[in-house]
Specification:
Shape of chain B: globular
Strand content of chain B: 25-35%
CATH superfamily of chain B: Beta-grasp domain
Helix content of chain A: 25-40%
CATH architecture of the largest domain in chain A: 4-Layer Sandwich
Largest sheet of chain B: 5 strands, mixed
Number of helices of chain A: 12
CATH architecture of chain B: Roll
CATH topology of chain B: Ubiquitin-like (UB roll)
Helix content of chain B: 10-25%
CATH topology of the largest domain in chain A: Metallo-beta-lactamase, Chain A
Shape of chain A: elongated
Strand order of the largest sheet of chain B: 2-1-5-3-4
Structural class of chain A: alpha/beta
Oligomer: heterodimer
Number of strands of chain A: 22
Number of helices of chain B: 2
Mean pLDDT of chain A: 94
Strand content of chain A: 15-25%
């Protein structure tokens, strides 16, 4: 029979002990409903900061959002004196974790600041003129900071989800401070995963919107984390994962694995289109026909007139190339196309092949607009977009097939090298 | 006017450009996957792998050296918004 779970709640303003000498000194924000403009939360969030005491010093790991600095200092002062703080570890420099950094350093100016290499520039921007007053140490995977009988070891884990993100491992306790990794927006003062309410939805939702676009980098981070002995995972938002922490690592590994594993060895090219009078539809069919002549490319054709773009996101995430066909209406691409492009914010598109085509009546600027957006999504757009006035003629449909053939050639690395002059651009 | 041959491997295209051209001035126009952020040598977004011809590029400025270091760039990587082609042949691709 499982042992009873302790549901003790921290008193208002009280720190919470994770292990002897290790405390949560963060803040609760139960009233938050929208985080960072893009994320909703039904019951707020927490800003988790931690304090680790060793025989020769105290480390503070991350702080809180500026409005909650008072709660952070109130908890911190119950477990450490400012003059005892020897190390400030900043696993992530986003404002919801650094809102009390400047004030903490004024109170504990002797603390050495430990950031990942790419954190330096952001720290300079955060502290402004005061930056020069403090000692900053750039740390990489394997570097340690000693607190006497305890030591913190750093793991450089960039892009989970900012360039400077890192994790910090308290070796003696098997305690991993992961900042946003394996965090979620869920506020419950009972704090530990075996004591709080059901936060599974929040955990998945947070991954989908914060970590998924950086799936490749999360995988790299897991490569560093998986070999560690883990007794507890302490993220910067949501519950502290003290019960079955390894399962969360395993679950993250599952989440970063391809959702739609391809059953074919071919490159995959997705063609999406919207058509007002059937002209762009005709073009789409011809582009698909030309592209499909290449046996090494699997071509799929989708009419966006269905209006719902969310179901396509998983498919796009795994595709090698994405081509969009759009008419120009009122000098713009149509809304469904923009909706599809906007949905790509949740996935990684860097390096994929992109392309655009479409029929138009008067101006035809939609194709260039879409191409520009594809480049903004860090895709390569090697074949200039194809525009046709009104319905395509048979020679123009052949141009569309040629466009498709070129796209497939670029996808398979068989495109003929070209040389042009600067003046022709 | 001195020119250089600048090849973007990811789109299989070589562009004959005047000396002094910055890589990013061309990469955007030809649809290469080299992307940009601040365009001022600060963010590191346009990190570019120089596949060959690194000697045909200007030396990194103090600013570029700092950003390359902070971005943990490899020895064959440069910032497309900062380095200029001098002449000869240079082959690049997104880092």
């Amino acid at each position: 029979m499982p042992s009873a779970i302790t549901l003790a709640r921290p008193g208002p303003g009280s720190p919470v002990e994770l292990a002897p000498g290790v405390h949560w000194t963060g803040a609760l924000d139960p009233g938050l409903r929208v985080f960072d403009v893009i994320l909703r939360t039904a019951n707020g969030t927490t800003y988790n900061a931690y304090t680790v005491r060793g025989s020769a010093g105290v480390a503070v790991i991350d702080t809180v959002k500026a409005e909650f600095a008072g709660a952070f200092f109130e908890r911190l002062e119950q477990v450490a004196r400012y003059e005892e703080i020897t190390a400030l570890v900043l696993n992530h420099l986003e404002p919801d974790h650094t809102g009390a950094v400047a004030e903490l350093l004024r109170r504990a100016p002797q603390a050495r600041i430990h950031v990942a290499p790419r954190g330096l520039d952001m720290l300079r921007a955060l502290l402004k003129d005061e930056f020069a007053d403090y000692e900053v140490v750039r740390v990489r995977t394997g570097d340690t900071v000693s607190l006497g009988d305890r030591s913190l070891r750093f793991l450089t884990t960039p892009y989970v989800h900012w360039p400077e993100t890192q994790c910090t491992y308290l070796e003696e306790e098997g305690l991993l401070f992961t900042c946003d990794l394996m965090g979620c927006h869920f506020c419950d003062e009972r704090l530990f995963n075996d004591a709080v309410g059901d936060f599974r939805f929040s955990f998945e939702y947070y991954f989908d919107h914060i970590m998924r676009p950086f799936r490749r980098h999360v995988s790299d981070a897991l490569d560093l984390i998986e070999p560690l002995e883990i007794a507890m995972i302490a993220p910067a938002h949501g519950p502290v994962l003290r019960s079955h922490p390894r399962e969360y690592i395993t679950h993250y590994r599952r989440l970063v694995t391809k959702r739609l594993a391809s059953e074919v060895a071919q490159k995959t090219l997705l063609i999406f289109y919207v058509s007002a009078y059937g002209a762009t539809s005709q073009m789409a069919a011809a582009v698909a026909e030309g592209a499909a002549e290449n046996a090494d490319v699997r071509v799929s054709l989708f009419d966006l007139a269905v209006g719902e773009v969310a179901p396509f996101v998983d498919l796009v995430e795994e595709a090698d190339g994405i081509v969009l066909g759009t008419p120009t209406i009122n000098g713009d691409a149509v809304k469904t196309v923009w909706d599809l492009l906007a949905s790509f914010v949740d996935i990684e598109t860097k390096g994929k092949l992109g392309g655009a085509f479409g029929s138009y009546g008067w101006t035809g600027e939609a194709v260039a607009m879409v191409e520009s957006r594809l480049q903004g999504l860090k895709m390569r757009v090697p074949v200039k977009g194809l525009r046709i006035k009104l319905h395509p003629t048979e020679p123009e449909l052949e141009d569309c097939r040629g466009f498709g053939r070129q796209l497939s050639a670029h996808l398979t690395g068989t495109a003929e090298p070209r040389e042009i002059d600067f003046a022709s651009l | 006017m001195a020119t250089a041959k600048l090849t973007f491997s990811d789109v299989a295209l070589t562009v004959n450009v005047p000396s002094g051209t910055r890589i990013i001035e061309i990469s955007e126009k030809v649809g290469a996957g080299i992307t940009y952020g601040c365009r001022e040598g600060e963010c590191g977004t346009c990190l570019t792998r120089i596949e060959s011809g690194a000697e045909n590029l200007t030396e990194p400025s103090v600013l570029e050296q700092r950003v390359l270091k902070e971005n943990m760039a490899a020895r064959d990587e440069r910032l497309a918004c900062q380095c200029q082609v001098l002449g000869g042949e240079i082959k690049v691709r997104p880092a």
